[in-house]
Design goal:
Length: 363
């Protein structure tokens, strides 16, 4: 309820209470003073402040006392007691609700601060790459979730991780935090991504339960290529003249389930972009159950002039497709492209291992 509409609630309640008192005074055989308890109840229902609710309750009680007549003292005293009790209940309810809202707001701010501390926003440029990221949690009204992402510049090139811990909420967040902590400790020293994936799995051995796992996609960006190691994660999408889903040549289980990482080297042209994401994108559905499609509209969104604009347009398209921003799963999107100052020469040698994979469309 807006503050503008709330401004008219208290005067309306007070006028209604006065009208009830006048009607009770005019009635001969019927007492209407019991209806005065409605005023404070309406104030509580409309979530007025405790002070305004107390004013409505006090006015109703005062009018109920004034309506007491010598001829009907016992009956009127019962009604006065009912009005007083309802008024007290309304004030206490509104006060408790106000305290609850303050506590929830503080917790939401703490959760957001915790999430940002665990997985801070990516810089717009790092290690010769332009970066943009967006996150959404499946937990209503919160940003807590099991998705994770981080980028670290190393001597061999920028290393990027995108992952998804099993589950939602606090439990998934703790597993995501453990993965990020391990990545930050090992990313600079691991000789390659295969070794890095094994080190992450080893460090997580004491953190994950028997049925817990974390899917991760590791990427290391070179001058005109990217090396990928995929452990059970959705494949990235290369955005160029077409959308290319970079499927896994040799699948590996996620972290926590004895992964067998395998490196894959993919060429990136100067104008290519690379989208890394979690399954909140591919598992998004319409109310009728149809999956989000990787089609021309997605291509147009991801080809927007800037990376931030591209992700915003992608989210708009996703919301329009699913009917709103409410999600069944956490969603993380990371979009990367070579920075203009580091674009390779047009004569760069091709990468022999490069294979362009067509977009996999759902039936």
């Amino acid at each position: 309820m807006t503050s503008r509409s709330q401004r008219w609630i208290l005067p309306t309640i007070l006028l209604a209470e006065v009208a009830i008192a006048v009607a009770d005074e005019a009635a001969v055989t019927v007492s209407m003073s019991g209806l005065l308890l409605i005023g404070p109840l309406v104030a509580a229902h409309c979530l007025l402040s405790p002070r305004l609710t107390a004013l409505a309750a006090g006015t109703a009680l005062a009018l109920a006392v004034l309506l007491v007549t010598p001829e009907m003292v016992p009956d009127h005293l019962v009604r006065v007691l009912l009005v007083a009790t309802s008024g007290l209940w309304a004030v206490l309810t509104v006060r408790r609700y106000r305290e609850y809202r303050i506590a929830v707001t503080r917790l939401a701010r703490l959760a957001e601060t915790t999430q940002q501390a665990i997985s801070p926003p990516l810089p717009a440029e790092l290690g010769g790459l332009n970066l943009a990221a967006r996150t959404r949690s499946a937990t209503p009204g919160a940003r807590l979730g099991g998705d994770l992402h981080e980028a670290i510049a190393t001597p061999t090139g920028l290393r990027l991780i995108v992952g998804d811990a099993k589950g939602h909420g606090i439990d998934a967040l703790s597993h995501a935090a453990a993965v990020l902590a391990a990545f930050r400790r090992s990313a600079l020293t691991a000789p390659d991504l295969t070794c890095l994936a094994r080190q992450l799995d080893t460090r997580l051995a004491g953190e994950l339960g028997e049925e817990d796992f974390v899917t991760v996609l590791l990427a290391e960006f070179g001058r005109d290529h990217v090396t990928l190691v995929n452990c059970g994660h959705p494949p990235p999408i290369r955005i160029g003249a077409t959308l290319d889903t970079l499927g896994v040549r040799r699948p590996s289980p996620p972290l926590g389930l004895s992964p067998d990482p395998y490196p894959q080297r993919i060429r990136l042209l100067p104008t290519d972009r690379l989208l890394l994401y979690t399954d909140g994108l591919t598992e998004a559905r319409t109310p009728g159950g149809a999956f989000f499609r990787l089609d021309d509209r997605l291509h147009a969104a991801l080809a927007a002039p800037t990376l931030d604009q591209a992700l915003d347009e992608l989210l708009d398209a996703l919301d329009e497709y699913t009917g709103g921003p409410v999600a069944d799963d956490d969603l993380t999107l990371v979009l990367a492209q070579a920075a203009p100052s580091t674009l390779p020469s047009p004569l760069s040698a091709p990468v022999p291992e490069d294979r362009r994979h067509p977009v996999r469309r759902r039936p």
